[in-house]
Structures
1.
Amino acid sequence: MTAPEVRELAAGETEAIVALWEAAGLTRPWNPPHADVALALAGPSSTILGIDVDDELVATALVGHDGHRGWLYYVAVAQPHRGTGLARAIVTAGERWLAARGIRKVQLMVRDGNPAVSLYQHLGYELQATSVLGRWLDA
């Protein structure tokens, strides 16, 4: 299998991006995906990568960094294309995007109960002995 072409997505593709994230079960009511797309595409420290098959967006990864650590968010592959290597391809592309910017470590968070943990472990990710704390700033 030839490596799929990974490209940076644009704001005009927001509806396709959000539709894929919703179909993959990644969106939550308290975290508006349209705003996440706009924010990710607004600056130089983040982007959204995508893979198309037959002119349809079938895989994404929102990738960004804080100057120290990189993060992957919204890693999604459309259901009919799971198990074809697209998850590995989009994660690897995100890692390359970060490495090209001098970022040495990439992290991601997976919600409890999401079976994707085993996928990431298969790709070489390790559970970290870390507690994630959060606070909403717009409350």
Note: The longest helix spans residues 86-99.
2.
Amino acid sequence: MHVVPKTTTSAPGLRERKKRATRRAIAEAAVRLAAEHGVEHVTVEAISEAAGVSPRTFFNYFPSHDDAFVLVDDEVGERIRESVRSAPADLPPLDVVRDALVTELDGFESRQELWALQSKVLQRSPHLIHRGLQAHMADERALAVALTDRLHGTGQDTEEAPGTALFARLLAAVTLTALRVALEHWCDHPGETALADAFHEVFTQLAQGLPRPTE
């Protein structure tokens, strides 16, 4: 497997690490309770108690009750966008988003069970699927903005490159779809494939122009 070098980013401070840990604890508690009892039977108070925080702290991290089941790794998107903006100027756009996502793969193997549980929770609650789609579209638009900023920062002018915004939207949509496909394949084949392998296979096929697979 070809190993892609990671984009260099500064390590998060202690405060930021604690915030991430608290957010993940709340989201994990929410998903596990929902998987066991059903979303409609899980309250903010129950989630907070299971995560060891107060209901007030819950709302510091999630705008609503439903968001805790959907936005499990919401902070990942911002880190990806920052990596896109700070990537080397001579790196091709597809490589930029691939490398930005590679930096987020660490630790995902240990969270396979949680991702699978979240998928089941969403399937049982149609209103959460709609909320998840809204979050996905928001991430896509934000990534497109980051890509547009990057393309403009490499010396391209909007008037000289009228297709920049369209290109950025397309690349953002393709990138997040590719990530979703890799994640779903990984969750559907526990123990059979590594997330990194599925991820690299998806982006290799994209880079090759999606030729017909051969044996």
Note: Residues 126-153 form the longest helix (28 residues).
3.
Amino acid sequence: MSGRGDSEISETGEDRTETPEDLDDGRALEDVEDLEGVEGSEGVEGSEDVDDSEDVEDPAQVARRARWTAAGTGSLLALAGLAASMLRATGSAPALVPAAYAFGAAVCALGAFLGSRGRTRRALWLLIAGVMVMALGDQFD
């Protein structure tokens, strides 16, 4: 079985109970409980009541924000690439430059689509690749 050897559940599935010997500084459990009410005492780690409700975010909200960010960024980069492609196509730049901008914009649009569907890691890599293609195409000018 993989994992840490000092886990709370042994390989047989029995729960380990914490004994006074398991404490780092050797105090008995009664001593730790007595210290919790004393002012100025630190107690042991995890003995204070911490309100984690403020720090914990809803995973669905985090995922929704990631999807919106990927879709918005991808759309913005795709529009910027198309605008640059149109501007370069009307100028005296070689044909490879506007084609690179258009291809990079298409890759960013694909990243925006995947990001809106929840594939935010793939969307991030596609956005990076799209911008790199646009930057590489700009070097040919």
Note: The helical segments are 29-35, 59-90, 96-116, 120-139.
4.
Amino acid sequence: MKPQLVLIAGPYRGGTDGDPARIMENLHRLELAALAVYERGHMPMVGEWVALPLARAAGSERIGDDISERFLYPSARRLIQQCDAVLRIPGESKGADGDVELAHKLGLPVYYGLDDLPEVTIRASVAG
């Protein structure tokens, strides 16, 4: 099996009541899952890694403002179309549930635990 590009789907704002510290805790959980996916030989992707810089560049001043809303869910939907699989981590999240629904429609595998994600042995790359 070749390495897959795996979208990590889970809570970002969900369950935080807009508390910035709790939002950052959720992002940290997404990133810990991304690290675990990487260590299994795949390339992880977290939608907020794309959405947040785009929203800032477009003038967003805070999470949840009108500008950020133009990017958070839509960028994840575009990103899923480039991915090979989705890893759904635990926690309430309408956005992550939408990611899973889209992945199913696209015929992508959805993993609900790291043990379900196959490990890949990475071969040494050719020096260039």
Note: Strands lie at 5-9, 43-46, 85-88, 110-111.
